[in-house]
Amino acid sequence: MTSDHAAAAGGADSPGPELDGARPHPHDHGLDVDEKRLHPAYLLIGAGRTIRGLIPLFAIALFSWPRWVLYILGALVLVGAVVSWWTTRYSVTDRVLRLRKGLFNRSVHTISAARITGLDTERGLIQRVFGVWSLKVHSPGDGDRSTLELGCLSQAEIDRVRDALALPDHGPRRVIAGPEGAHGSDGPAAPDPAAAFDPASMPALDEVPLANLNTRTLLIAAVTGTSIPLILAGLFAVWNRAREVLPDSTIRYLEHEVFSRGRGTILVLAVLVLLASVVGVAFAALRLAGFTLRRDGERLRTSRGLLSQRAGTIQVNRVQAVRLVDGLWRRLLGYTAIQVEVAGQGGHDDSDRMLFPLLRTSEVADLVDRALPELGWTPAELTPISAAGRRRYFTAPVLLTVPIAVAGWLLLPRWEWLAVLPLVLAVLVARSQGRLAGWRLDERTVTFRARRILAVHTVIARVDRVQITRVRTNPFQRRAGLATVTLQLSSGRSARLRHLRAAEADLLLHTVGRRFRKVQLSKG
Amino acid sequence: MNPPDLPGDAQRHQLPRRTIRYWQIQNLLTALVVLAVLAVVLYLWTNLFDWVRILLIAGVAVGTVIGLLVVPPLRYRRFWYAISETEIDIEEGLLVITRTVVPMNRVQHLRMEHGFIADRFALANLHIHTGAGVVSMNGLARDEADRVRERVSELAHLSDDL
Prior knowledge:
The complex is a heterodimer of chains A (524) and B (162). Helices cover 43% and strands 24% of the residues of chain A. With 524 residues, chain A is α+β, with helices and mostly antiparallel strands. Among the domains of chain A are: 2-194, no CATH class; 215-288, no CATH class; 394-434, no CATH class. In chain A, strands 7-6-5-11-10-9-8 form a seven-stranded antiparallel sheet. A seven-stranded antiparallel sheet of chain A has the order 14-13-12-18-17-16-15. In chain A, helix 8 (215-224) crosses helix 11, helix 9 (227-245) crosses helix 11 (263-288) and helix 15 (395-411) packs antiparallel against helix 16. Chain B has two domains: 18-75; 80-155, Pleckstrin-homology domain (PH domain)/Phosphotyrosine-binding domain (PTB) (PH-domain like). Chain B has five helices and six strands; from the N terminus they run H-H-H-E-E-E-E-H-E-E-H. Chain B has a three-stranded antiparallel sheet with strand order 1-2-3. A three-stranded antiparallel sheet of chain B has the order 4-5-6. Chain B starts with 6 loop residues before the first helix and ends in a 7-residue tail after the last helix.
């Protein structure tokens, strides 16, 4: 089924709009999208976003400025939204997406379909009410600036843009054997890949998803995620802020109330913290709920979210590497998160590169193999770091924490034992880093596993896709015959392994990323 | 399995000797700025302890001497580059030594720049951009930089499977 479409795509590549009126066949690639504005819902959503950004200003205006200032501010926001909607136009011509923006300072973003590494759609609650999505277009380049966002598009518009951009497949198309064929979407009435991009109706696809996030894992993901630490940090920040703003006497009174009134108040505090945590966990769970991973020809699709929804596509042949992340608690519970490294999507937004939020570590290899057979990853024992290398892992943490420990010992009477704590933690982390670090090189993949501080990252990169290989040595490493290897990926992220034997580092330097490999291996 | 040699295993190129001078002048300019800042700090901040003053002055003096006399020749000795049809191979460093291999087909574009000091020495800095970052060669002879630039843009196939 898929190869038919490839042929159709190649054939109907004449420029210019061909069809109008009724919705044309989704695989006519000559199909263009005429220049038009975003869905009018953008007026409301754009204004809402501006107001959200200006909340502090509005708060001040509300309390301390005359009422008419508030009206003027409101009017400005409204005018801004209208102007922004009026001046933002997009079009697709010959598989090139153009986005024009701006009244005085005009800009035109142009991006060719051949450069697009991913299309994501997402929508919040208000967007759901209007039945619109925002479309995010990713391309390789430096981080966030390479992402184009089309604010509000209706379902039908998203389909049209997608069809017009219909990601071309280079060269002869691989026919996916295995799970995809087995799940059989090859009936005559089966949805074709591009037309099937209908995030709302995704569950209706007759493909069986590769994986669904079940409730138990969802809860674990939410509880062990970043929301609880973030909320605690937030509460702490609020308290600090309050100390600055409120008069000293009030603060002293509050502190007195809390810390010397005994258990009652502490209980109230604990309940507050617990409540905040529950709310945080609930939000995280809503974000991840219903996470589904599908493979659809040359694309991987993820969709998720209960209230605000999000769907993403990843081009399989753009995947440079898979990164398995085991956080501290998740590792203890035996769970792993799977990320993909795709060019131009290394930005700080973790969710863009999420392939699957969490699953049992024992099931990871199977899922990666079913989702990305092209990676050719065969999980195997990693080569550990030599004993001399493991010893080196202690150097930096110990050198850093000994002064802290000494200073603490001298400066903290009665709490001396606390001063030793950083040193003990550093030693524990270093020991674990040395033991966990490992690597492996086979015909198609290179694997690096390293503990950062708490989380353990395992990067499985395609050998022929690594962009830059670096071997770095400091004088101590040179004396011990050790070296640090860094593999830089086009996602802008990298994988680093410290204190390998010099010979091992040299082998990696001579092998990874080079073109000869295929020839060499076919020889035997 | 013995992978074939990298270009740097066979023939390594060094920078021209005048690059040392160029780096020394660059470092001298930096040192002058630091000295100016130090002078202002010492002048305005009158209630500093004497030993702090002495430490600051001594630190900057030692730093300047090292930056002028020790660092440039060492950097020069460490640096080499080699370019074959398939790879760019560069080693650089001072105490920490880094050897970088960029496969030729990863090169996205090249950028050459030279300031007025580099101009006086007929030197240039060449930056090789890839999808994952930049690799720089500072202080190449200008004509050599031109040759490298032409050679790399000839060899680099500008299509890449990003």
